[in-house]
Amino acid sequence: LCPCLIYGAYIFLPFDAPLLPTVSARLVYTLRCATFATFPVVLGMIVSGISRLCSSALEPFGELHREVEIHRTYVSQSIHLFILYFFNMAVLATYLPQELLKLIPLLTGLFAISRLIFWMSYAIGRSFRAFGFSMTFLPLLAMLLWNLYGMFVLEPENLLA
């Protein structure tokens, strides 16, 4: 489903990436796009804090209720996945040709939407969360494989340059 969503958005959404000739400009563009990917994480932190505040637990550091635990786990996993996403996206931006830089905001949107889908499905039940997690993890895995391919096969002479 993820490749179909990315391909459809790439073909049918009417925007193009700006002209980014240098690596530093591409990294700044990636950093700006990654700012939007933090939205589900920040929203999760806010909801986690509110649910912790509204919890009926007598001891603040005692055992957490299921509602509080869901949000805490979501925020923790989202932070870990965002770090992996951001570093892979930064490396990807250095290897992509100019005409494919449109993928950077598309992958950012997919990450944000898939984290929100994961959060909703995790709140419904733990057995439903695989869809949202796979929509987050499989594009991340594809980026990692492309980055490794780019580093070791396409440009091995520039690996550490």
From TrEMBL:
Annotated coiled-coil segments of the chain: none
Domain of life, source organism: Eukaryota
Statement: the UniProt record of this protein carries the keyword Transmembrane helix: yes
One Gene Ontology term, aspect cellular component: trans-Golgi network membrane
Transmembrane segments: 29-53, 74-97, 103-124, 131-152
Keyword Cell cycle: no
Gene Ontology BP terms: regulated exocytosis
Keywords: Membrane, Transmembrane, Transmembrane helix
Protein name: TMM79 protein
Organism: Machaerirhynchus nigripectus
